[in-house]
Amino acid sequence: MNADLKPWYLSKTVWGGVLAIVASLANLAGLGIGSLEQAELADHITALLAAAGGIVAIAGRIVAQRKLK
Fold first, then answer.
1. Under a CB-based contact definition with an 8 Å cutoff, are residues 65 and 55 in contact?
2. Which of 53, 54, 59, 67 is the most buried (most CB within 10 A)?
3. Structure confidence by residue, pLDDT tens digits, 28-64
4. Is 50 in a helix, a strand, or coil?
């Protein structure tokens, strides 16, 4: 696997796009989400997902059946 690749869910661009869609739908529903809030939410989401990935990696190593050399 190429070291330059990252999972799609760790991309701020992807989450920014998702949040833009959600903000548009929220605006249609009468709620307002500004671009500053969208950027901040994208940062928080990617940070949470990165932390979750680290936890899963460590937990996977702990429960792994084979030892490391």
1. no
2. 53
3. 888 777 778 888 888 888 888 889 888 888 888 888 8
4. helix
State how far the Cα of 23 lies from the Cα of 25, in Å rounded to an integer: 5
Task: Give the C-alpha separation, 25 to 8, whole Å.
Answer: 22
Distance CA 43, CA 60 (A): 26
pTM of model > 0.85: no
Helices assigned H by DSSP within the chain: 12-28, 35-63
Cα–Cα distance for residue pair 43/11, rounded to 1 Å: 10
Q: How many CA atoms lie within 13 A of 13 on its CB side?
A: 3
